[in-house]
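debug: dumping io for the single-chain case to check the tokenizer round-trip. Nothing else runs in this session.
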Amino acid sequence: MIADGVEDEEKWLAAGIAGLQQNAFYMHRALDSNNLRDALKYSAQMLSELRTSRLSPHKYYALYMRAFDELRKLEMFFKEETRRGCSIVDLYELVQHAGNILPRLYLLCTVGSVYIKSKEAPAKDVLKDLVEMCRGIQHPVRGLFLRSYLAQVSRDKLPDIGSEYEGDADTVVDAVEFVLQNFTEMNKLWVRMQHQGPAREKEKREKERSELRDLVGKNLHVLSQIEGIDLDMYKDTVLPRVLEQVVNCKDEIAQYYLMDCIIQVFPDEYHLQTLDVLLGAFPQLQPAVDIKTVLSRLMERLSNYAASSADVLPEFLQVEAFAKLNHAIGKVIEAQPDMPILGVITLYSSLLTFTLHVHPDRLDYADQVLGACVKKLSGKGKLEDNKATKQIVALLSAPLDKYNDIVTTLKLSNYPRVLEYLDTETNKVMATVIIQSIMKNKTRISTADRVEALFELIKGLIKDLDGDAHDEVDEDDFKEEQNSVARLIQLLHNDDPEEMFKIICTVRKHILGGGPKRLPFTVPPLVFSSLKLVRQLQGQEENPFGEEESTTPKKIFQLLNQTVETLSIIPAPELALQLYLQCAEAANDCDLEPVAYEFFTQAYILYEEEISDSRAQITAIHLIIGTLQRMHVFGVENRDTLTHNATGYSAKLLRKPDQCRAVYACSHLFWVDDQDNVKDGERVLLCLKRALRIANAAQQMSNAARGSTGSVTLFVEILNKYLYFFEKGNPQINVAAIQSLLELVTTEMQSESSTPDPAADAFFASTLRYIEFQKQKGGAVGEKYEPIKV
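debug: decoded output
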């Protein structure tokens, strides 16, 4: 059925074009022979094709454009006729004898254009006559295209200031009157289309109307181009007349489009000075009109105008733009109780953007907008509309983008209250946006109160909200979120130790409730921030004024002990052990032996009771050895206890090669370069011999299990340790021991049962080259290495 209608329309259009072209042909012949009577006859017959009611606006436009092209040629002919002596007044009378009204009015507009150009009559009189005559066509589509033609031929002939058609006083008023009258009549015709035809074709009519809207809107564009319209005329005449037509037409399509046109075509300065009048029209519009979009565009234009130059800002203050827009939004929301929450948020989001551009220093205005938004959201619970939540994110992001400073945003008391209406996922998104803003702008947050306020804003990332299940969260996303929180913790700083300690306590309070999955990400940065403060206070044991409340390293270490302990409970023993060792090293630098010993004790307990994975044990024992070697605070007894345990753990590792490496690493615990009291050559030798025995045992086990002794890498590694201590002056490590080890390695490498290992061969060769290099150095070093034969 629809297809048949389309085919019929195509046939009618083809027939109309054929009739138009045929009459245009005869018209051209008459024009070529200067036959005025025939030219008028055939042009009238050609224009009669436009009398059809069968075509949709889209098809009618195709027909109209062909007729329009022909009328251009006819207008040129009329101009030539007047030059040849034909009276334009007689011609104006003559075309009015055409049989049908539609062709008659098209011809009248065409001759009228020539008549105005001839200046034989005032332009305002001819225009007034034409616009009145066009009332004769009341069919919506035919009437709209006729008046569109009138607007087209007259737009360069309006009696504007500076125009060649400018007559006596008040000619601009006549030009404005003509355009306004044509606009009013066109709008009436356009609205009338909505009420013609059956109700079932409503959507089709709305589509057709949408295709024709630019014909009506062009009048407003013409108005905006009239030079003579100053602010007073716009305020007193143009805007009230246009708005009167917009409000009175009571048609939602027309109201939305025309309000948008007004905002887009007239200057920003005019909008600013007529805000009262313009905003007063919004509550009078039909409830179905998408006011939020139009009003948002108005605020966007005004925002851009304010941003364009600082010189215009006083105008905004003078007209109290914020107060008027805020009041208007309230009125619009009041007039439309069924407005979706998305519309409300969009309006307030646009108002906030406007406020931030025009009054960046007025935080109370920004807070007022957020407060109004909270008021509208109250009682609605968490928002479920995705578009509405995105709009809230835009609303909350605006102050961050403008101020580039979360500290300023934290002063907005209603900011966290708006956040409460976001669902868990969007809350996380907003928290991420806030953290990214801080990172990007390197914002310094330096008081505990501000940190408290900030962590309230980003609580979606640091604790579970509303029983949020971890299983539903993507692991990569979760890690990225927690890493961003960790980076944020590192940024918090204050040079004053007292305030910094308060910041650390505030952060600790928030992150400890984050649950077992978050703590491994958030505790380490907190520990390192605390250790940074310890280094700052290094050497300060007691406050010189004897205040009990003062921050001391001991006090921070107590807090750290409790904080790291939470990781061992989760459990995350490997991480907890690393942090205990970091704390022990810091306590060592502060000369706090009991504190350092306690941290080592905790690390050892974790190693014994919690770390069972062999790889984790290897990593842990090397960390313990490395840290203990750097400690200088321990007395003989404490150091012996810790060293004894470390060597014991090393010998109990599962695999022999791991045992061997851990045992020879322990040799460094008995010989520390910068500590004269830790240079026990005998115990170093004992460790190295023990490592050698374990390496031998490893080879025997390999031979028994696989039939080959395996690689000699362990022996080469031990040889390097011998050389290290030999060079450091350990009297127990002599040339004979090194020579013996060199021969052992050589023998093992030549043994038939050894497994070929290019890496071990290269390592050994490199070691031999080192010995030769040291010999060639000469001096004391050369002498020392000279007896070694390679």
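debug: round-trip ok. The mean pLDDT is 89.
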